[in-house]
Batch of 2 targets.
Target 1
Amino acid sequence: MKFTLKTTGFSLDEALKRYVDAKLTGVFRKLLKKEHILDATTLDIEIGRTTHHHNKGKVWRAEVNAALPGSFLRCEAAAEDLRQAIDLLSVECAGEIKKYKEKKVSKMKRGARMAKRDLKLDPAARMRRGGRERGEGA
């Protein structure tokens, strides 16, 4: 998995970089490890301040753009503290990844249901175990 980390409005220190790596890329590694698509995944992580003149309220934001094979996930969170915004973002990303994985399973099940419906025969045309058709005389 390739990931890029971009900051806006402040400078990045090593401790914060490790925190982002543990929280955000850890979520993707944990939830996509069985999917065999982890190598093809790219993450673009951006963290920063929303404004320079506000000091109160939700001034820190974090966002992730994840390019998965056949899909694109985008998550965004804002909070009063940078680490809190990153925590909220990791929860949101986990939900988006679960939706992505369940969508593949549900498409497969939907296709199986359609195939089963197409293969169903009319009840009058079904055969009994003894080889006799329904509706035949005694």
Note: The mean pLDDT is 83.
Target 2
Amino acid sequence: MKNKTVNRMYKMLKSQIKPLIIISILAIIINIGEVVKPYLVKLVIDNFLSANLWQKGIMSIGIISTIYIAIVLIGNVLDFIVNTTTNMVGENVIYSMRNKLYKYIQNANIPFHDKTPSGTLFVRMTSDVEDITTFFKDVVTTFVKDVLMIIALTSMMLSLNFKLALVCFLLIPLVVLTSYIITKISRKAHEYSKKIKTKLNIFLAESIYGVKLIKIFNRQHEKQKECNDLCDKFWKSRFPTAFTEGFLVAFMFIFENLGVSLIVWFCVNHIFNINLNVGVIYVFITYLKQIFDPINRIVENFETIQEALVSVNKIYDILEHKEYLENFEDGIDLENVKGKIEFKNVWFAYEGENWILKDISFTIEPGQSIALVGKTGSRQNYYY
């Protein structure tokens, strides 16, 4: 991720740092519970079932079961709080972004609107903002928890059996390398697909707004062909992204089952003098599957992350251009204006020498009205 994008994400999130810290703390507590649950099952298998005992000292299967149920209930409650809080953080960020963008559009000068199609601004306010909303609801809710879960599980595996943990971790470089190669290939495909999607949304917005004019000038056939071409391009642009995502998920599934096979093979054959109880083997297999679950979620959400980052950049590409903002504090306040308005040899351009008015002279008498009609209002130059 480029530094510019990171800075823009920080700008977007800095007002929500406190709730995000709370979410992270709760996620740590939830992860501790997820790590403890398989370990409790391991205790039951090795300390009770293997020895045909139902009680050992003050501990019993009933007490361990009660602890397990309590962890499940508390984890579900905390998970609900995390999801709700994350959604609220997302809504607050989107509320702020949408209002900032609308305020910018309202305060931008004429040159900005002259060079920026209204359909583009509509897409920024709707589609791009919705991409960020999806990012918060589908990714942020689980991302922090998933990263912390991976760290906790790897720590537990190392503490249970260092050698077997290292054997399992041999898969990690393969997972990272595969993910890196595939995501690098798919990044350009995502960017291209996003561009086509933006063009399609702009076209649809402007066509729907101007449907009356399209019918007046009998442009339905041309517009339908343009729509078909854009839809076809967007449809084709989705193939590379769908292929890379499916390919990566399939590889994750292979790595997960390969890891389980390695655990069983090393334990059964006592390779490296690895000789573990059934309960420990169960914990290792469970932890390994739990590690791949967050990795799979991150991979499955890759498209959402990519689209959100592209949308953030597109929105800030507008917000960070302060030169287009008008200063409403400047100017002269006119009071009690009376009399006629006269233009004498007026030249005017929004930019450079692209003259809108060329040596114009006219007089507007009191009570008169006058209209200045540009190319979009003159029939001979109008095209939609």
Note: The chain has a mean pLDDT of 80.
